[in-house]
């Protein structure tokens, strides 16, 4: 039996009357948001459902549809997107949420800004960056992450923002708005500095994508009493995003074919188990290779050094998103004098 929609939003829609007596006149009717959106093309499939490109009142939007049994995931993600002060150009724009009922089922929707280049994972399969473009894109990602991580203190809850840790940073969850502008999406596993104590415990802290997990999550040594822990784990995972992006960067005159790759592609099986990752990342202390050619260019060399300060074992030694954003902004500001033309 279909569930009675509890969250449905309505908006006035203008329709043209086509019968003879009403021709040329328009009439307003109330329609649910979801009825006005026209699904155009399936653009992604994740853990909880499907993401569609859609047209809403003539404009492109992305619609994430959750299966009926995933209502809890929908509620959790909507709640996160509705956090006050979240809006930022490097965080995926949320428009609203709704549910669509038919006779047989209910589908949960989140309507978002549509990113025409898809996920960074897909984008890296065909994209090429110059070092400056890479620098700009990476700066944007850390600007978004810094905003996500930061708490804003106001005189009432609507004027404040809790710190938010993402907990599933990877190229699949970064969306590409244009060649030098990315944004952080998929807040489905995020926790806030207000709710982490009630949400995270000994039995459920190991979430996210195993390939990208920080060593302290893999070996359960993290201190989940402190919110800093979750931000530091995000910083670790983010190092692999820069590392993956570096692979498609055209450094100087080198014209070798560039290929997208994943961390530990030769060391662990596809969809690795925690044990596989634990062996490589913690016991053997391995990290993905930093290529010689990246050390030859001043921009990619800085990025390599940053990566090393992000994927270090000790969470307290990792760079913060703010530190990275500031360094990269400074580099972009002085690019004319500090770097040879690229
Ligand atoms: P899940 O929580 O199921 O992993 P995501 O929110 O990560 O779902 O979305 C799955 C995929 O859908 C992404 O990896 C991306 O390819 C695509 N996608 C998601 N949101 C958008 C968007 N706003 N614009 C374009 N593509 C998107
Ligand atoms: Mg995802
Ligand atoms: Mg998700």
Task: Give a description of the structure.
- Helix 4 (131-149) runs antiparallel to helix 11 (321-333).
- The protein is an alpha+beta fold and 342 residues long.
- Helices cover 32% and strands 20% of the residues.
- It has a five-stranded antiparallel beta sheet. Strands 1-2 form a two-stranded antiparallel ribbon. Strands 8-11 form a two-stranded antiparallel sheet.
- 37% of the residues are buried.
- Bound molecules: adenosine-5'-diphosphate and magnesium ion (MG) (2 copies).
Characteristics of this structure?
two-stranded antiparallel ribbon; 20% strand; alpha+beta; 11 strands; disordered N terminus; five-stranded antiparallel β-sheet; binds adenosine-5'-diphosphate; binds magnesium ion
Structural class: alpha+beta
Mean pLDDT rating:
90
What is the count of helical runs?
Answer: 12
Q: How large is the radius of gyration?
A: 22 Å
Query: SSE order, as H and E?
Result: EEHEEEHEEHHEEEEHHHHHHHH
- Largest sheet at a glance? 5 strands, antiparallel
| Ligands present | adenosine-5'-diphosphate, magnesium ion
Beta-strand proportion: 15-25%
| Strand arrangement, major sheet | 3-4-5-7-6
Distance between the termini: 62 Å
Number of strands: 11
Low-pLDDT runs of 5+ residues are: 1-5
**Helical residue percent?**
25-40%
The 3D shape can be described as: globular
Topology (SSEs and partners):
Elements: E1 10-16, E2 26-32, H1 33-36, E3 37-45, E4 49-56, E5 59-66, H2 71-81, E6 94-101, E7 106-112, H3 120-123, H4 131-149, E8 164-165, E9 174-178, E10 181-184, E11 191-192, H5 196-199, H6 215-218, H7 228-246, H8 274-283, H9 292-295, H10 298-310, H11 321-333, H12 335-338
Antiparallel strand pairs: 1-2, 3-4, 4-5, 5-7, 6-7, 8-11, 9-10
Helix pairs in contact: 4-11, 7-10
The protein binds adenosine-5'-diphosphate and magnesium ion (2 copies).
